[in-house]
Specification:
mainly alpha; Arp2/3 complex 21 kDa subunit ARPC3
Length: 196
């Protein structure tokens, strides 16, 4: 069943959107409260394990430009759930920035002859490559988000370094967990298909 969903964009886009929403709910209901209990003030702005970032990475990996609906709808849902606002200028700017940063980094890496996503060689997508790619994407996004958070007085300059580090660690670890689980589910799906 998993393999048939991956091969059909009409099924894959809603499945990834549902996965984004479920990962958001898991983050809000379980991960964020645990982080808050650990006493890290900055965790209110940036999680140390942000699973929705991994779902966005997986969406981009599987769909390329078709990942845009997952970003726009999923992040709008998260914004409404978190703040009660659906489309604020800051959310629109962040969403557009995310929609451009992923393809930009893929283009730059492909231009440097690194087939990070295995477009030419299916064996070149690795967990390490995914983590490096997500690190570069998140590093780029974190500076934009940090400047935006400072501009809107959500965090201070003193907290900015900790915010960037939490942002990068959270997105990269979240991506690692999602990609690892994706690999495991793919192995199980392929084994089940071979057994049939």
């Amino acid at each position: 069943m998993l393999l048939s969903i991956i091969d059909d964009k009409r099924k894959l886009i809603p499945a990834l959107l549902i996965l984004y929403i479920l990962s958001w709910e898991l983050s809000v209901r379980v991960i964020f409260p645990v982080e808050t209990n650990l006493g890290w003030e900055i965790s209110q702005q940036a999680s140390i394990l942000f699973l929705p970032a991994g779902v966005i990475f997986l969406s981009f990996y599987l769909l390329r430009w078709w990942f845009i609906p997952i970003v726009l709808i999923g992040r709008t849902y998260a914004s409404f759930d978190n703040f009660g606002d659906v489309l604020t200028p800051s959310i629109l700017i962040e969403n557009m920035f995310i929609c451009l940063v992923y393809p930009l980094w893929l283009h730059l890496l492909n231009s440097a002859n690194w087939d990070v996503f295995g477009d030419k060689d299916k064996n070149s997508l690795t967990l390490t490559g995914a983590m490096i790619f997500q690190s570069m994407v998140t590093f780029t996004m974190s500076f934009g988000s940090t400047l935006q958070q400072i501009a809107f007085d959500a965090i201070s300059w003193d907290e900015s370094t900790q915010y960037v580090m939490h942002f990068i660690i959270g997105d990269v670890l979240g991506t690692g967990v999602v990609i690892f689980l994706f690999y495991k589910f793919m192995q199980i799906a392929i084994a089940n298909q071979s057994a049939e």
